[in-house]
Amino acid sequence: MTTRKRVLITGAAGRIGSHLAATLADRYDLRLQYNRTVPANPPVADVHIANCADYEALAPALVGVDAVVHMAADPSPRGTWESVLENNIVGARNVYEAARAAGCRKVVFATTNHVMGMYDRDQQWPIYCSQPVRPDSLYGVSKAFGETLGRWYHDQHGLAVICLRIGWFLPRPHDEIGLWMWLSPRDATQVVWRAIESPIGYGIYYAISRNARRHWDITETIERLGYRPEDDAEAYAQEILGPGG
Amino acid sequence: MTTRKRVLITGAAGRIGSHLAATLADRYDLRLQYNRTVPANPPVADVHIANCADYEALAPALVGVDAVVHMAADPSPRGTWESVLENNIVGARNVYEAARAAGCRKVVFATTNHVMGMYDRDQQWPIYCSQPVRPDSLYGVSKAFGETLGRWYHDQHGLAVICLRIGWFLPRPHDEIGLWMWLSPRDATQVVWRAIESPIGYGIYYAISRNARRHWDITETIERLGYRPEDDAEAYAQEILGPGG
Questions:
Q1: SS3 annotation, A49-74
Q2: Contacts of residue B137 in chain A, CB cutoff 8 Å?
Q3: Which of A159, B148, B192, B236 sits CB 3.0–4.6 Å from A153 for a disulfide?
Q4: Annotated active-site positions of B, please?
Q5: From B85, which residue of chain A is nearest by alpha-carbon distance?
Q6: What is the pTM of this model?
Q7: Is the peptide bond before B126 cis (omega within 30 degrees of 0)?
Q8: How far apart are CA B195 and CA B205, in angstroms?
Q9: Beta partners for B165?
Q10: Is A170 exposed, middle or buried (0-12, 13-18, 19+ CB in 10 A)?
Q11: How far B161 CA lies from chain A's nearest CA (Å)?
Q12: Does some domain include residue B29?
C-alpha cells in the first residue's frame, strides 16, 4: 500500500484546471483553489477560495500538500500589464513563496509556448526550451518570469520545479495551427502527473501531443519526464485540410 | 557639425548613475532623473524628479530624449520581494513603456551578473550571456525580468534595447573577487556610450573590465558593441594577494 500524494491545483475553475481536477482525482488526493466561487458540484470536497495575488489568503492552501500544480493565471496573450502583473507575476511569486513556507516541495508551473512566440512568428523552427526566451506578449513575459523565479526557488530553497510550456489545449484540433500545437486532454493529464512524479529538480519542457507537424521539441519531455504522448493531431489533418492537405 | 543626442539617465543619484552623469555630459545633452531630491550641484540643469514606479510622474522624463540609460533600481542582492517588485519590475516596465509612448527609440538597461549568480556559486565557468538564466537572488530575478521585457519591447515595438550585465563597479578592486568581476569607472562610461551608439536591435552583454582572471564572456561585448576595455584588475593582484598570489 502506498500513500497517495496530496496535490493542490490552483485555477481549478479554468479550462485546463477543471480538466485536471476531474482526471487527476483518481490518482491524488486533490485540493482545489478557486478564485472567487466554488462550482455547484466540485469534483472533490477539499476546496480553498482565495485570489493568488493575496498572499495571506492563499498561503493556507499550501499547507499539508505534497505538490502544487499552478494553473491560475490570466491566460490571455492580450492580457494587459496591470492584469499580468497581479495575476501572473505576483500570483506566481505567492504560490512559490507559500509552497516554500509550508514545506511543499514540488511546484508544477503552467507556462506557455508564448514565452517563445516570436520564434514562431518568425518561423524560426524548431524551438528548444534551452534557447533564450522571446515572448510574443506581456502574458509571455509574465510566464517567463515565473520560469525564472522557479529556477531561483529551486537553486536557493530546494523546491523541485517543473515548468510545462503548454500548447493549445483543446478537445480536438480545428485548424492548421492546431495540427502542430495541440495538447490533447489525456496527454495534458499525463504530462502533469509525470511532472508531479519526476525526480528532476528543475526543468522546462514543452507540453504538446506527439503531433507529426510539431515545431517544438518534446524529445526532452519524453526523455526526462518519461512523457509518452498518446495523441497526434495528424489524425485530424485530412478533415481540417481537405483531401491532399 | 553633428547634433548631440539627448540622453536620459535614471537613478542619477546612484553610485553608477552619478558617475555616468558626470562623465557622459561632454558627449551628450543629459537629462537626469532623481527619485526624490536633486543634489545640491547637479552636473546638468535638465533634471526630473519622479519615482520610476509611478508611471504618470515618470513618463514626461522620456519625452524628447533619444535614449535612456536605465540605472534606477534597488541594487541590493538582499532586496526584498516588495522592493524589487516595485523598484525593479514595475520600474523597468514603466521606463520601457514611457520610452515607447514618447518615441524614444533606445533603452540601455542596467542589469547584473546576479542574473547568472548561481553559476558563479557553483563555479560553472565560463558564463556566456546565451545560457539559461540562474539568478542568485530576487534582485537577479527582477533584472532577468527586465531583460526579457526588453526583448519583447524590441520584437513587438521596435525599441533598440541593450542590456548590460554590470559587474562590480568600484574605483579599484580590493579583494580576490574584485580581481575577476571589476568594472572600472572609465570602462563603465565607455561601455554605456558604446551601447548608446550601437546599431544592434537587442542584445545582452557582460560589462566588466578586461580582467585577466574574469569568468564571464566579454568577447561578445568587444565584438558586437565595439567595447575596448582599458583597465585590468590584474594591475592590483600583487597588492591584493601578496607576493606570489
A1: ECCCCCHHHHHHHHCCCCEEEECCCC
A2: 152, 156
A3: A159
A4: 139
A5: A90
A6: 0.97
A7: yes
A8: 10
A9: B111, B206
A10: middle
A11: 13
A12: yes
**Helix axis angle, B185-197 relative to B15-23, nearest 10°?**
70
Specify the CATH number for the domain of residue A18: 3.40.50.720
CA separation for the pair A154, A107 (Å, rounded): 10
Q: Name the grid cell of B23.
A: 562623465
The domain tally of chain B equals 1
Contact B141 A145 (CB under 8 A): yes
Report which of B105, B124, B108, B244 is spatially closest to residue B166, judged by C-alpha positions.
B108
**ipTM for the complex?**
0.97
Chain-centre distance of CA A226, in angstroms?
17
Query: Please, what's the b/e burial string for A75-109 (b: 16 or more CB within 10 A of its CB; e: otherwise)?
Result: beeebebebbbbbbbbbbbbbbbbbbebebbbbbb
Structural domain of B132: 6-241
Cβ of residue B151 closer than 8 Å to a chain A Cβ? yes
The answer to the question of residue A190 being in a domain is yes
Closest to B72 in 3D by CA, of B46, B56, B96 = B96
Q: Is A117 at the interface with chain B, CB within 8 A?
A: no
| d(C-alpha A26, C-alpha A83), whole Å | 34
Q: Which of A130, A155, A202 to mutate to test the interface with B (most CBs of B within 10 A)?
A: A155
Question: Would residue B150 count as lying in a domain?
Answer: yes
Residue B15 to chain A, least CA–CA distance (Å)? 27
* Confidence band for B42, pLDDT divided at 50, 70 and 90: confident
Residue in chain A nearest B94 by alpha carbon = A81
Bridge partners (DSSP) of residue B109 are: B70, B163
Cα angle value A143/A164/B77 (rounded, 5°): 45
Write phi, then psi, for B49 (nearest 5 degrees): -100, 120
**Cβ distance B165 to B116 under 8 Å?**
yes
- As a whole number of angstroms, the distance between CA B12 and CA B217 comes to 28
CB pairs under 8 A between A and B: 69
In a domain, residue B1? The reply is no
